[in-house]
């Protein structure tokens, strides 16, 4: 039995799959590995491309179809398909691994005995120019992750790992059948938001899992041009606020039209501050507006929890 599977979930990105599979097959690792593609009911040529790639030489490629739409059903299908493996490593269909990526993950699992290993994510802007307003803090919301040049054990949620570049010891999921990606934080199709990886990270942290950051486990995340607009970051934070308000906030004794008044006030103040920064040509306007969108989303999400 192959001890290690590298999985990617994909939806309507047929054009990116040959490059991804080729890059994965070029990885050198001390453990035998195969590839698993979870086609999330794509409507383009994804299945035909995957079937053709499965027939090519190199690491074996298994292809399954998950008909329930969304990243959560797709990731959970990958877990189900890999329960008999020792380890599972995720990469996304809009990413490419750097040389040594899989070897670093294997080292984390075998030599360091980590339960979960994740690494550096760099943004690949492709042919699009990086906007001048897109600093590293905001780029983190595109998936950029850089915790520095040294490997370390993760002890708090201040240094998270994202599932687009994370591997798991599968015994964790065999021993805890209820531990899966949280369907409440699903992102379907071309929607924005999600948060299922953050929830999994926090669940593992709460369980005391041995979690390791490896800077040499490096990938490049390709960003769609439509995400390089300020409106995307506002939508992203509003959606995150909706989920937080609906599922994470405590019950508050005082509400107005079903919403906590302090959240509405917070959103209004932050939007006002963002407007003042923008009109004054000062930095930080977008970040303030993102905070305001999150607060507004929390209030609306709280109202929807009934």
CATH superfamily annotation of the largest domain = Spore Coat Polysaccharide Biosynthesis Protein SpsA, Chain A
Distance between the termini: 48 Å
Top CATH class of the largest domain = Alpha Beta
Please trace the helix and strand order, writing H or E for each element: EHEHEHEEHEHEEHHEHHH
Helical content (DSSP H or I, runs of 4+): 25-40%
Seen as an oligomer or otherwise, the chain set is single chain
CATH fold descriptor of the largest domain: Spore Coat Polysaccharide Biosynthesis Protein SpsA, Chain A
Give your account of this protein's structure.
There is one protein chain. With about 300 residues, the protein is α/β, with parallel strands linked by helices. The chain folds into two domains: about 5-225, Spore Coat Polysaccharide Biosynthesis Protein SpsA, Chain A, CATH 3.90.550; about 230-305. Helix content is about 40%, strand content about 20%. It contains ten helices and nine strands. The termini are far apart. The mean pLDDT is about 95.
Quick gist of this model?
The chain has 306 residues and is α/β, with parallel strands linked by helices. It has helices at residues 17-25, 46-54, 71-81, 101-110, 136-139, 171-175, 196-206, 230-248, 261-279, 285-303, and strands at residues 4-10, 33-39, 61-65, 87-91, 95-97, 116-124, 152-153, 165-169, 211-222. Helix 8 runs parallel beside helix 10 and helix 9 (261-279) packs antiparallel against helix 10 (285-303).
Salient structural properties:
306 residues; nine-stranded mixed sheet
Record the SSE blueprint.
Layout: E1 4-10, H1 17-25, E2 33-39, H2 46-54, E3 61-65, H3 71-81, E4 87-91, E5 95-97, H4 101-110, E6 116-124, H5 136-139, E7 152-153, E8 165-169, H6 171-175, H7 196-206, E9 211-222, H8 230-248, H9 261-279, H10 285-303
Parallel strand pairs: 1-2, 1-4, 2-3, 6-9
Antiparallel strand pairs: 4-8, 5-9, 6-8, 7-9
């Amino acid at each position: 039995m192959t001890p290690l599977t590298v999985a990617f979930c994909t939806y309507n990105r047929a054009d990116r799959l040959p490059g991804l599979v080729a890059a994965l097959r070029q990885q050198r690792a001390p453990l035998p590995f195969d590839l698993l593609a979870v086609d999330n009911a794509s409507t383009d040529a994804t299945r035909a491309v995957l079937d053709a790639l499965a027939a090519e030489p190199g690491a074996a490629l298994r292809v399954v179809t998950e008909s329930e739409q969304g990243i959560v059903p797709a990731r959970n299908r990958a877990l189900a398909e890999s329960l008999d493996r020792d380890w599972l490593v995720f990469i996304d269909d809009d990413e490419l691994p750097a040389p040594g990526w899989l070897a670093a993950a294997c080292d984390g699992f075998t030599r360091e005995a980590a339960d979960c290993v994740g690494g550096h994510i760099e943004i690949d802007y492709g042919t699009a120019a990086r906007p001048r307003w897109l600093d590293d803090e905001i780029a983190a919301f595109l998936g950029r992750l850089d915790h520095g040049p040294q490997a370390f054990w993760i002890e708090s949620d201040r240094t998270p790992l994202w599932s687009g570049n994370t591997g798991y010891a599968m015994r964790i999921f065999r021993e805890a059948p209820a531990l899966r990606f949280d369907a409440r934080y699903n992102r379907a199709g071309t929607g924005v938001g999600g948060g299922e990886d953050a929830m999994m990270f926090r669940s593992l942290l709460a369980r005391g899992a041995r979690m390791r950051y490896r800077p040499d486990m490096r990938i490049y995340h390709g960003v769609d041009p439509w995400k390089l607009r300020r409106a995307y970051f506002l939508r992203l934070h509003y959606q995150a606020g909706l989920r937080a308000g609906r599922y994470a906030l405590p019950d508050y004794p005082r509400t107005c039209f079903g919403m906590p008044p302090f959240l509405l006030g917070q959103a209004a103040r932050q939007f006002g501050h963002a407007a003042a920064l923008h009109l004054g040509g000062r930095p930080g306007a977008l970040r303030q507006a993102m905070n305001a969108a999150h607060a507004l989303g929390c209030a609306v999400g709280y109202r929807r929890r009934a």
